[in-house]
């Protein structure tokens, strides 16, 4: 499908609200202009042997777009540009497979902020795949989303990462001060990089209500007591916050199946997922 054909298709569907562009190949660039789309899921073909690879997705003008869902960013497209999406509320999964991400005038290169001048106050849910996990990279992202309420971190642990959980009260992160209520960390080992990363949110998220850890171990009493001590839960910034650890398998959050489920305020929340709860 060419870019012109896609745009003709969108123009011919004046009430279309959700669009799934999965395993794209044979086209290098797709540009989206739609007055009605609320949800877009997209991915590149996983076969590296394809002649023309999907290189760039541009959201040129989508005034009703609420959700932008890269389904498996490890395979691309390597460039995603969001020019006009003023109602965007859910963004993710983002990873360094998207080597260049532009959100208005904010630019991220391989998950690191190059410039972050655009604020996106409508975004409430953010999902990041983070190698390390990398605290500086994640903080660079959340500064763009002052009203962020839910943060999912898909951790890819690395031993050589050092996270220093420093917070400058003279340069506050607005979502930590006023809005961030839920943090979910997947693939948590409880090693030093994990602990220092998570502790930053424990000590600085002032309205946090819930923090969940998908732990890659059996979460026995001794391990839990050690984690609570190292995370300094007794010194948490939000006294009402609850912390839940549970044993879990390795998680990637790729292949989200809820592009078209517009009734779900958060397509990554398993408690809302009918296929997960058996409803």
UniProtKB/TrEMBL annotation:
<dbReference type="Pfam" id="PF24758">
    <property type="entry name" value="LRR_At5g56370"/>
</dbReference>
<dbReference type="InterPro" id="IPR055302">
    <property type="entry name" value="F-box_dom-containing"/>
</dbReference>
<dbReference type="InterPro" id="IPR006566">
    <property type="entry name" value="FBD"/>
</dbReference>
<dbReference type="Pfam" id="PF08387">
    <property type="entry name" value="FBD"/>
</dbReference>
<feature type="domain" description="FBD">
    <location>
        <begin position="174"/>
        <end position="246"/>
    </location>
</feature>
<protein>
    <recommendedName>
        <fullName>FBD domain-containing protein</fullName>
    </recommendedName>
</protein>
<dbReference type="InterPro" id="IPR055411">
    <property type="entry name" value="LRR_FXL15/At3g58940/PEG3-like"/>
</dbReference>
């Amino acid at each position: 499908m060419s870019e012109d054909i896609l745009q003709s298709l969108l123009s011919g569907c004046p009430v279309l609200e959700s669009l799934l562009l999965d395993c794209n190949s044979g086209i290098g660039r797709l540009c989206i202009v739609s007055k009605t789309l609320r949800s877009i899921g997209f991915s590149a073909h996983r076969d590296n042997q394809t002649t023309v690879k999907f290189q760039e997705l541009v959201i040129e003008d989508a005034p009703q777009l609420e959700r932008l869902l890269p389904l498996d960013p490890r395979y691309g497209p390597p460039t995603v540009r969001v020019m006009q999406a003023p109602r965007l509320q859910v963004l993710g999964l983002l990873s360094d497979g998207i080597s260049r991400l532009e959100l208005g005038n904010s630019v991220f290169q391989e998950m690191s902020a190059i410039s972050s001048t655009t604020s996106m106050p409508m975004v409430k849910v953010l999902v990041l795949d983070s190698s390390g996990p990398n605290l500086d990279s994640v903080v660079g992202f959340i500064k763009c989303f002052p009203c962020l309420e839910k943060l999912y971190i898909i951790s890819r642990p690395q031993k050589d990462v050092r996270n220093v959980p420093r917070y400058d009260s003279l340069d506050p992160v607005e979502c930590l001060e006023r809005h961030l209520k839920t943090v979910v960390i997947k693939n948590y080992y409880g090693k030093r990089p994990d602990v220092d990363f998570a502790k930053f949110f424990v000590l600085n998220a002032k309205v946090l209500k819930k923090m969940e850890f998908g732990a890659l171990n059996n979460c026995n009493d001794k391990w839990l007591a050690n984690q609570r001590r190292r995370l300094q839960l007794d010194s948490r910034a939000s006294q009402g916050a609850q912390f839940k650890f549970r044993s879990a398998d390795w998680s990637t959050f790729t292949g989200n199946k809820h592009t078209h489920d517009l009734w779900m305020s958060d397509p990554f929340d398993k408690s809302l997922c009918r296929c997960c709860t058996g409803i």
